[in-house]
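Suppose you are handed a protein chain with no further information: no name, no annotation, nothing but its sequence. What can you learn? This example shows the usual starting point.
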Amino acid sequence: MHHLRRSFPFPSMLFLLLCLGTGAALANEVDFDSHVVHYNVINTTFLSPEVARAYDVRRSSTRALANVAVMERGDSGMKPVTATVTGQAVNLNQQARTLQFREVRDGDAIYHLAEVPVRGGEVLDFRIRVAVEGRPQPMEVSFRQAFFAD
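A reasonable first move is to predict its three-dimensional structure. Written in structure tokens, the prediction is:
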């Protein structure tokens, strides 16, 4: 497992909108040397109706949105890359929910979004695998997220 750390805001409009909705000022990321995986999960009610429509996300207190973006280090700095993102969200009773990620492009940014059903007071352990072309092993990110009742 790689060390998780906080960083300054992720350079993308969708990610900033997601963070603004939650009051979060920082993004989660995991550094894998040649790549950095950024991730965030929020309840979809934090999205404005306009953002939800733009990204085809259903706003509901019983739905959360996982947002994963992958950046690759290169000679000219960091650049977004496409990836195959898969994962699960597992509650404390060990009930697993498969995450169906879809790729979304917003200008130069590339996101991988998945909606997941949630209940107020529920805690989910997210296990996400990110595969990028040219990297022999997938990158794995694990984190815990609590969801609160409205």
